[in-house]
UniProtKB/TrEMBL annotation:
The keyword Hydrolase applies. Keywords: Hydrolase. This is Serine hydrolase. GO terms for molecular function: hydrolase activity. The lineage of its organism: Bacteria, Bacillati, Bacillota, Bacilli, Bacillales. SUPFAM superfamilies: beta-lactamase/transpeptidase-like. Residues 58-174 form the Beta-lactamase class A catalytic domain. It comes from the Bacteria. Gene3D superfamilies: DD-peptidase/beta-lactamase superfamily (3.40.710.10).
Amino acid sequence: MRTLIWVIGSVLVCAVSVLGIVFWKFQKEIKKDDPEYIVQFIKEHKEDKNVSVAIQYNQQHWVELNTKEPLPLASTVKIIIAIAYAQQAADGRINPQQQVDLKELEPFYIPKTDGGAHEAWLAQLDLQGMESVPLSEVANGMIAYSSNANTDYLMHILGLQYVNDVLTQLAVKEHEPLYPIVSAIYIPTQLMEEKSLTKKETLTALRDMDMTEYRERALTIHENWVEHPLTKEEKAKALKMLNMDFQKVWSDRLIRASTDNYISILEKLNSKNYFSEDVHKYLDPVMEQLMLNPKNQEWLKHAGQKGGSTAFVLTLAAYAEDKKGNQTEIAFFANDLNTMEQLKLSNSMNSFQMKFLTDEGFRMRLKKELSES
């Protein structure tokens, strides 16, 4: 069986009551891996500006839906940081083999705010008895595990101005500037303490804040944490603030871009001739960890991807070239999702990609149905 992304194991719950049976059926439904769900979702949301899809196959525009609409990227934005890392490694600005004490990442980590990504990355390092890792492994953890702490640490090491200069190099003019995503979580706590507000007043003030001030506050907090990291108690206090209303503001204010922007980036990654060989020497091991799977090596020349999600967002940017020379780029961004939509999209995206890459009949039907709908 061909595998494009890692398979996450699921736990079956034995139903011993009517309530248990209902729960089991609900679990079975949301965990169903169904590429047709993605097709139907796209068709049903064709007029929805919160859904944007761009798919290319061999340089042909296969699917295009609201491709100019900027939407929150969530962790898909980490592709930009991976590019900045590879460029600085190629230029000798950073040493990918430089050892990073894992404690250096702690200032940028607030527990229970990244879906367990950072803890999962640390857990596999702990199994190897590692207390420090090469900088390259920090970058790997940012992409493979989607660690937000690693992301903000790399912003610190690479320099945020340099990271944002990558957007200029890539000519993605509609892409919003990057800012530290973990420190933004602390803005509500800072605002409440700074202005002696109630929680309700803080939420109102946060919603009214313009993006320039929001980004500046996130950066100031980020820079302060380098010298004065939060205590465990302060992190717990910040976490306590994050009810769903605050999470929605944080999600809505994540860096935005369009699928049109990301298709152009994916084309550059897929072509292997936009960036220099020296850059790809460091970029490919980070972006193309899919190729560590021997089954992928059997039929793919190269492939890379980065997805992202919040409670309300699901995004994916993926590229691949198979051994027959067929090139595919997929950018899928969705915002304002309900819980069922978010889970079902997430669980079906892998099979949708696989179906598109390997099934000509599915590709042709997808193009026909979405152009007619």
